[in-house]
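forwarding from the other thread:

> can someone predict this with magnesium ion?

sure thing
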Amino acid sequence: MGTKLLEARGLCKAFGGIRAVDHVSLSLAPGELCALIGPNGAGKTTLFHLLTGLLRPDAGTVHLRGKNITAWSPPRIWRRGLSRTFQLPEVFPYLSVLENVQVALLSAARQTFVLLRDAALLWHKQASALLAEVGPWRACARPSGHLALRRSKTPGVGHCAGQ
Ligand SMILES: Nc1ncnc2c1ncn2[C@@H]1O[C@H](COP(=O)(O)OP(=O)(O)OP(=O)(O)O)[C@@H](O)[C@H]1O
Ligand SMILES: [Mg+2]
């Protein structure tokens, strides 16, 4: 696998007679940026699902930092360092933007069951710092579900950064 961060080889996924992903290979080096473009129905989302464990490929493999993660569960893949956002934002709509990022940090630290401490204070500083990195953000206290679609992507990015 060399220095590759992420490497997919020969990924295939069919839904009935539709070959949504047909022998796709790609590799990413550390620090490399890559865009995946294609028309509606080209298979982009399906490919992301395969890379992040939401779908199992019919054929092919995915390696992350040299480790074969094919068919691992999404949480296991996330813990190994591969995060994603979704086409439609998947956030906790009643939590604020900041709280959404705190949830990711709590989960990464396996602090999902903490008694006797005010959860609002946990990882507060780190979540604020992460949001500042994601972009100029003045609506941290607003419920994520109240944001317009474009802006509601930010908590998702914060979720990813929070791992
Ligand atoms: N769960 C599913 N069951 C059946 N067919 C599916 C399923 N998911 C995707 N498909 C089909 O697979 C093909 C690829 O879909 P996919 O959503 O991956 O494309 P996309 O490139 O993300 O499209 P868009 O640009 O519209 O988001 C399409 O023909 C779609 O209808
Ligand atoms: Mg899509």
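Residues 97-161 form one domain. thats all i got for now
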